[in-house]
Amino acid sequence: MLLPSSITLLPFTNADAEFFAALATDERVVRFIGYGQPWDRQTITACVREALEEEPLDLVGASRWFVATEANEAVGIVFCTRQETCGELGYWVSADQWGRGIGGAMLDSALVIVPRAFGITKLSARVAPGNAASARLLVKRGFKLEKRDEELEHYMLG
């Protein structure tokens, strides 16, 4: 396995919209996200618009998106949304980068940046039951499975 040399999380900008659209329309990437189908342009545009909003980070619902880069190439997206009692993390890795440790490196970077940016200590993540790779990434970093329902597994850290 070729390990990532260095992952940098940069704030999401309008210039990253096409990279996000490529992820959101890739059947492999969205297999465990939303309804498991590629997203339409309207949904992608709405998400990008939300990602670019700069709401104060102490407001419930405020979010920040980051583009994960390796050697100046976008390889994934990380986002965090403030909830009532924690910040909810999410991450998407370009399917072309799977199997290289990119997801873990992205998560490691997010675990440093997100708590500091949001001023929080508790983080959550939701994972589709069939996404064992994502669940392993979280557990390896100290997240604990809190509950399961028909659609998602809910993990907590802190």
Helix content: 25-40%
Please tell me the CATH architecture of the domain at 8-81 and 90-120 by its name: 3-Layer(aba) Sandwich
Number of strands: 7
CATH topology of the domain at 8-81 and 90-120: Aminopeptidase
Euclidean distance between termini CA atoms = 31 Å
| Helical run tally | 5
Radius of gyration: 15 Å
Question: Strand content of the residues, in percent?
Answer: 25-35%
CATH class of the domain at 8-81 and 90-120: Alpha Beta
List segments where confidence is low: pLDDT < 50 over at least 5 consecutive residues.
Answer: none
CATH level-4 homologous superfamily of the domain at 8-81 and 90-120: Gcn5-related N-acetyltransferase (GNAT)
SS-based structural class? Answer: alpha+beta
**What is the global morphology?**
globular
GO molecular function, one term: acyltransferase activity
Domain N-acetyltransferase: 7-158
InterPro entries: Acyl_CoA_acyltransferase, GNAT_dom, N-acetyltransferase
Protein name: GNAT family N-acetyltransferase
How would you portray this structure in words?
- The protein has helices at residues 17-24, 27-30, 41-52, 102-118, 132-140, and strands at 8-11, 63-70, 73-82, 87-93, 123-127, 144-148, 153-157.
- 32% of the residues lie in helices and 28% in strands.
- The chain has a domain at 8-81 and 90-120: 3-Layer(aba) Sandwich (Aminopeptidase), CATH 3.40.630.30.
- With 158 residues, it is α+β, with helices and mostly antiparallel strands.
- It contains five helices and seven strands; from the N terminus they run E-H-H-H-E-E-E-H-E-H-E-E.
- Strands 1-2-3-4-5-7-6 form a seven-stranded mixed β-sheet, with helices on both faces.
- It starts with 7 loop residues before the first strand and ends with a strand.
- This is GNAT family N-acetyltransferase.
- One of its GO terms (molecular function) is acyltransferase activity.
- Residues 7-158 form the N-acetyltransferase domain.
